[in-house]
């Protein structure tokens, strides 16, 4: 369990420290398409966390992963409106 949760922590680290700042910077610099792509990547990443626990096994972070997917998808849609 600890190994799988560690992998999820690494995934969330990428979202928080790389993808979200990239999206913010892209929008600030007038490149919303790149920001949208970064947020779409953020929406996909929690799926990798769920996959860490194997087929047929529920991730203890399933609800949080779904919330992150939803928030990132909504953010990408808002950024898309800037195009």
Number of strands: 0
Helix content: over 70%
Q: How much of the residues is beta strand, in percent?
A: under 5%
| Largest sheet entry | none
The averaged pLDDT comes out at 94
Which structural class best describes the helix and strand composition? mainly alpha
Output the number of helix runs: 3
N/C terminus separation: 42 Å
Uncertain regions: pLDDT < 50 for 5+ in a row? Answer: none
Rg over C-alpha atoms, rounded to the nearest angstrom? 14 Å
Shape category: elongated
Write structural notes for this entry.
Residues 36-57 are annotated as: Disordered. This is Pectinesterase inhibitor domain-containing protein. Helices cover 80% and strands 0% of the residues. With 83 residues, the chain is an all-alpha fold.
What labels would you give this structure?
83 residues, 3 helices, 80% helix, 0% strand, elongated, Invertase/methylesterase_inhib
């Amino acid at each position: 369990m600890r190994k799988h949760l560690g992998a999820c922590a690494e995934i969330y680290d990428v979202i928080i420290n790389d993808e979200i700042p990239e999206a913010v910077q892209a929008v600030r610099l007038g490149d919303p398409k790149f920001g949208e792509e970064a947020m779409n990547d953020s929406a996909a990443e929690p799926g990798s966390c769920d996959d860490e626990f194997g087929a047929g096994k529920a991730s203890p972070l399933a609800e949080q992963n779904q919330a992150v997917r939803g928030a990132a998808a909504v953010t990408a849609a808002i950024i898309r409106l800037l195009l």
